[in-house]
Design a protein that fits this description.
The structure is a single chain. Helices cover 77% and strands 0% of the residues. The protein has 302 residues and is mainly alpha-helical.
Length: 302
């Protein structure tokens, strides 16, 4: 019985792969031109449908390379026929196949191209969803590529007058730049995040976590003045505990008081941030001045 099932499964995959090849042949015929037949331009729409059918067959047959290739050909054909939304869907499907094959290095390009087609087709919602799905696929192994996709997602929804959602995507991009140790870029993204939340009418302590994270990043950059400016501009968004932590961090670094800075960096408010900021705060070097540091220096002098 098991042998029969295995043979049946293999024959199904083989049949579907063969059927996919037949659809490719049909697509090629639709793309042919002939002066004798008075056919002066390819039938892109019919060819696109055949390429799409071929891709579906190849996926059932688990012929992943052929399925991805068919989706790409279908995308080109749909784009040439003016069906930009359907062209974007083909890139979406090709991206999923790359996930199945473990070809994550191709995901960013496919998502960017597909997202652009969705936007050109007047469907920014589909574009942002595709970009976010791709970014999540890349976060662990390719954080730098995920950053770019989150930024594009923020730009996509930002043009639709949805600054709060754009701020969420920008916040994710900033978090990943910290993971990638791109602190200057992180500072720019966190500033843009707060500006977007402000544009959306954010009030109260809802986004105080972003302000606290921004303060930590500025101190990591070695710019205590910039950290103080962050607090001056956005500090009103923090709750009482976040405010205490931010003030300890800013004053600790400004006054070269390592104990105070470490108290702020180890505070529960900081530990409640995303893990990337928690790790950053934990590993940050603090000034040598302060209670314990002072005692060590006095012992060294003796």
């Amino acid at each position: 019985i098991h042998f029969y099932k295995r043979v049946t499964k293999m024959s199904l995959e083989a049949r579907k792969t063969k059927e996919g090849s037949e659809h490719l042949a049909s697509a090629a015929k639709y793309l042919e031109t002939s002066a004798w037949k008075l056919k002066f331009s390819p039938d892109w729409d019919s060819a696109a449908d055949e390429f799409n059918k071929a891709a579906i067959c190849f996926k059932v047959g688990r012929a992943w390379d052929q399925a991805k290739s068919a989706h790409m050909k279908a995308a080109e054909a749909y784009a040439n026929s003016g069906s930009l939304f359907h062209a974007g869907k083909q890139f979406d499907q090709a991206m999923l196949i790359c996930k199945e094959m473990g070809l994550l290095e191709e995901v960013e390009d496919l998502a960017s191209r597909g997202g652009l087609l969705y936007r050109q087709a007047g469907s920014p919602e589909s574009a942002s969803h595709m970009l976010i799905r791709a970014a999540k696929l890349l976060e662990v192994k390719h954080p730098d590529k995920a950053i770019s996709l989150y930024e594009k997602a923020a730009d996509t929804v930002g043009t639709e007058d949805r600054p709060a959602e754009a701020g969420q995507h920008m916040e994710q991009a900033a978090r990943l730049t910290v993971r990638a140790r791109q602190y200057d870029r992180a500072a720019d993204l966190l500033h843009n995040t707060l500006c977007l939340y402000s544009e959306a009418g954010a009030q109260g302590s809802m986004h105080g976590r972003v302000v606290l994270a921004f303060v930590i990043v500025q101190e990591k950059r070695g710019d205590s003045v910039a950290a103080s400016k962050v607090w001056t501009q956005w500090g009103g968004w923090c709750d009482g505990h976040q405010s205490a932590a931010a003030n300890d961090i800013i004053n600790g670094f400004s006054d070269q008081d390592g104990d105070l800075a470490r108290k702020g960096l180890d505070s529960p408010s900081v530990r409640a941030l995303d893990n990337d900021y928690v790790k950053l705060a934990r590993d940050m070097e603090v000034p040598r001045g302060g209670g314990e540091g002072g005692e060590e220096e006095e012992l060294d002098l003796c």
